[in-house]
Amino acid sequence: MIKRYRILADYHQFYLWDHGESPDAPTDYTEADTVLRIKTAPFVIVVQPERNMEVPVTVEIRDEAPEVALDAWDHVAEASLALPSGKLEIHECTGGSIDILTVPAGTYRVRAHHGGLRTLSDDGLDGNDHYRIVLWPAPFADIAVLKQYVDPSAGS
Q: In terms of domain of life, where is this protein from (predicted)?
């Protein structure tokens, strides 16, 4: 299953969570969390896009882990998400629910791909950044960064 969305990434975030649990998104952020661009709490994953605007997001649900292909992406991170209800909800930070997808109940690995991060305007309002989220059934594992983005303007 592949779905495409335009998601308002208000406060530089949107959520994937278990619809049956309707969890609270975490609010305690550290600098390390923002560098990872992904954060977890029970039954929720926070994806942290670069822009605080509407961004294109593709969500793909697979039966097994995809190949790791990093070349086309600026940042790639993974985390685990429990979906005991079998209902994956995609939710904006302040705008509400975007979609609810039915999946087999269980634990999933979520790989968040961030692309086009170097295309952002100086004010961060415009750009061609895009995001791909891939989920597949997998045992729980800690957050892992497969490719770390380093903002070239961070040192200036």
A: Bacteria
